[in-house]
User: Fold this.
Amino acid sequence: MLSYTPDEMMTVTAARSLRDGMTCFVGIGLPSEAANLARATHAPGLVLIYESGTIGAKPGTLPLSIGDGILAETADAVVSVPEIFNYWLQPGRIDVGFLGAAQLDRYGNINTTVIGSYASPSVRLPGAGGAPEIAAACKEVIVVLRQSRRAFTERVDFVTSVGFGDGAGSRERLGLTGGGPRQVITDLGVLRPDPQTCQLVLTGIYPGVSLDQVRDSTGWDLEASADLAEVPPPSDAELAALRALRSSEPPGLLAPATRVPATPQPPAAQAPTRVPTVRGAS
Assistant:
C-alpha cells in the first residue's frame, strides 16, 4: 500500500518543478499548495507573486484566496494590480506561471469559463481572472489538475487561456510572447508538449499507475514518450512538509473552545416611567 495519496503525489511532483530563485505567478488551490511546498523544502528563495499585487509573499499557512491578508503581511512588496500585470507580467519578467483548469485539451488550452455553450452553459465556472495573461506572457506555464475524461477533453468548450492554440506556430500567429505550457502535472503522471506538434505527450507516470489507466482518463488518443519514466515517489520530508502546510490554521483564528468570551455589559438604564396627570372635572 502506498503511504501517500494521488493528490499528494501530484502536489509534490508540481513542487519539484520549481527551482530556487525563480519568480512564480501563483494561482489559488493546487498551484498555491505546490508553490508553497517548494518554498518550504528545496526552493526557499522562490519568489511567489499573487494577482492581488503581493511580491515575495511568504505565507506560513496556505492562503484562502489571493486577497488573504497573510500574503500582504509576509510580502516583500505590495503593488497595485495594474502594476503586477503591466510592469511585471506582460513584459515577460515572470519565470513561471502556475495554473489550474476545469478543462484542458491536447494542445494545453485551458477552460475556466463555462461547460457547454457560452450562451446557455450547463455550468458557469469562476472565470478567467488573470489566467489568460499568465498563459500568454510567462516564460513557461505549468498546469496542475486531476486527470479524467471530463477534464481532459478533445476540445475545450471555451478557450479561456491559450496553450498552443490549434498546434505548432499558433502562439506566434497570435502574438503571444510567453513560452506556453511546458508541463501538465496530474494525479496520474506528467505530460509535456511534443517539440514538433505541440500536442501533449505522457513523459512521466506515477508508481502503481498503468499506461492504460492514464489513457482511459484522457479524452483523446494520448501518445506516450518512447522514454516514458516512472516519477520518484514523495520522500518522507516532502510528505511531512506538505501535511504540515495542510494542517496549519490561518493565524488569528481561535478554535471555538479557546475564544475569549465577550465581556458582560450592564443592562441599559431604563427611562423613568411618566405618570399621566389626571385633570379634575370643571
